[in-house]
Amino acid sequence: MRPLLRRLLPSLCSAAARALLGRRAVPMALRPAEAAAESAGVGGDARSAAPERDGLENIQQKKIFKENNEKTQQSEEPCAADSIDSLMAEMPFVDTDIEDECAMHATSELSIKKKRKRTIGREIEEGIERKKKKNKQYQPNYFISLPITNPKITGSIQAVQDAIIQKDQRLSKAMVRPGSLHVTMLVMHLSSEEEISIAAGALSDSKVFVNDLLKGKRVDLSFQGIDHFRNQVGFVNLAENDHTTLLKEIAETMKKIFQEKGIMAGEERAFKPHLTFMKLTKSTELRKQVKKIDSSLYDDFKNHYFGDEILHRFDLCSMFKKKQPNGYYYCESSIVFGEKQAAEPDDAELVSLSKRLVENAVLKAVQQYLEETQNKSRQTDGSPAKTEEAASSNKNESDNDNSKKEP
After folding, report:
1. Fewer beta carbons within 10 angstroms: which end of the chain, N or C?
2. What are the angstrom distances between the C-alpha of 376 and each of 137, 358, 385, 391?
3. Are residues 83 and 9 in contact, defined by beta-carbon separation less than 8 angstroms?
4. What are 95-128's pLDDT values in tens digits?
């Protein structure tokens, strides 16, 4: 900054000095010849001697003017220098060099950019953390399940799983147990026992609406063909028909009922009913080894018919609580509706029926044993039963005697 001012200020100071000198009173020696002649005297004699005197005075005036001009220039140079120094001293940031100032400005801008970049990066990281926390907070942990209980379906899926494992043993960890097979109708996040209770009430309320949609009809869900989600999940398709369309309507109705109860239920994507039998997410170790499931492993079953499941029950199940002994999920609440084929009872019904049959058989056996024991004790102890027999025999004898005395 100082070199620039040193280049500009000399011309400015010179102009200022000249302006100041122009305002000073002009000395008598520098006045024009006419003014000197008038001050010298008045009259004809003076006028007659004027030409000679004027020439001499003009020479003297020019000499004096020249000397004064040289003195003025000599005095201007130090004045200009002094003026520059004084002006420089009075200016702010006089000791700051323009290059340093530019460097400082560039450094300041760079630091601001870095700070802004760090701030943006920190905001992005914080946003990602908030999103992760939110996703974890609202991660589904409960779902509405349509259990698969038809032995034909479970047996066919077991055959597919065995065929795949024979080709790739590693995928044994990805298989869903037969007892866990189900169709997911709705997923939700329940963070407390109170919300679980509310969800159970919503499931109970949905029974009325489901019955209204069914109108007494039996819904047969037909499972046929195999498909996948991004080669990460293998599932059996539901054949597209009127019954599948009705199942989708039921799912939408239940979703609205749960949301009206304040339960975070449902997904943004459209409901696609499917029966999952294999998924890589079942094992973290497996996902490191197998990135994708090769669809050629189940080519032989891509159009296979697995069987029909009658719509009979919906369960509110936990994803993370300990499963039941048969492999099915922990169930908080259930609703049952419609009809179910007697030839296809589920495990719970079989166990209950067996218990009833055994209890009835045991009761009958105990009753029969008690009756026989009582009869034997009466015969050996002369109990009232023996007295009655004797009385009846005496009566028979008297009747025989009387008959003999008749004519």
Report:
1. C
2. 73, 27, 11, 20
3. yes
4. 544 444 455 555 666 777 777 777 777 777 767 6
149 or 132, which is more confident: 149
Sequence-ordered strand ranges (E) for 11-86 = none
pLDDT of 209 higher than 80: yes
Q: Classify residue 329 by its DSSP letter.
A: P
Which DSSP letter does residue 175 get? Answer: B
Q: Provide the token pair at 31.
A: 């006045």
The three-state secondary structure class of 28 is helix
Contact assessment for residue 153 and residue 223, using Cβ atoms and an 8 Å cutoff: yes
Cα-Cα-Cα-Cα dihedral of 131, 135, 137, 143, to 10°?
170
pLDDT of the residue at 204: 95
The model's pLDDT over 14-37, given as tens digits with 9 standing for 90+, comes to 666 666 555 444 444 444 444 444
Tell me which residue of 309, 265, 273 sits closest to 184, measured CA to CA. Answer: 273
Q: How far apart are CA 197 and CA 203, in angstroms?
A: 10
By CB atoms closer than 10 A (0-12, 13-18, 19+), residue 369 is exposed
Least confident of 75-84, 242-251, 327-336: 75-84
> How many residues are present in the chain?
407
Question: Could you tell me the CA-to-CA distances from 183 to 50, 223, 299 in Å, in that order?
Answer: 135, 11, 23
What is the domain partition of the chain in residue ranges? Answer: 138-336
* Distance between CA atoms of residues 101 and 105, nearest Å: 6
- Contact (CB, 8 A) for 307 and 153: yes
Query: What is the spatial distance between Cα 374 and Cα 371, in angstroms, rounded to a whole number?
Result: 5
**Which is nearest to 304 in space by CA: 156, 119, 143?**
156
DSSP tag of 241: S
Instruction: Give me the phi and psi of 236, to 5 degrees please.
Output: -95, 135
Q: Are 307 and 223 in contact (CB under 8 A)?
A: yes
C-alpha–C-alpha distance, residues 307 and 154, integer Å: 9
Alpha helix ranges (H) inside 24-49: 33-40, 44-48
pTM of the model: 0.54
Going by DSSP bridges, is the β-strand pair 233-238/220-229 parallel, antiparallel, or unpaired?
A: antiparallel
Strand, helix or coil at 199?
A: helix
pLDDT digits (tens, 9 = 90+) for 341-394: 444 455 555 555 566 666 667 777 777 777 777 777 766 655 444 444 444 555
Selecting from 3.90.1140.10, 3.40.50.970, 3.90.1150.10, 3.30.1330.60, what CATH number does the domain 138-336 have? 3.90.1140.10
